[in-house]
Amino acid sequence: MSEIEDEAFKLIQSNPKGILQSELWKLLNIDSRKCSRIVKKLTDADQIERIDHKSDGVKTYLLKAKKRAIEPELLLAGGDLLPCIGCEEECSVQDCPLLMDWMYQLAIEEFSEDTS
Fold first, then answer.
1. C-alpha 114: how far from its chain's center?
2. What is the DSSP code (8-state) at residue 61?
3. Fold (topology level) of 3-65
4. Segment 4-45, tens digit of pLDDT
């Protein structure tokens, strides 16, 4: 993905309700034709969806990032699931002993993989 495509995708992702294509090209400081090509690439790569939209009587498109499924292995360390999933404790990330233990296990796994 090019730098401008990456920037466009991040802008779209940062707006959960979506962003109008007519606004995107202005935010990126590019012309509408170049924006259309970027949107097409992101749509073809299945990273965003493009929805017909009328804004002040003018046809445009609402762009929304598609949600990706999380890879389960990213939530595991030492066979243990990330403790924050389903946690009901009211703690801060910096002070959570369960999370610190999980992260320690993750570091051990990465170290073991690097040395083998």
1. 28
2. E
3. Arc Repressor Mutant, subunit A (1.10.10)
4. 999 999 999 998 899 999 999 999 999 999 999 999 999 999
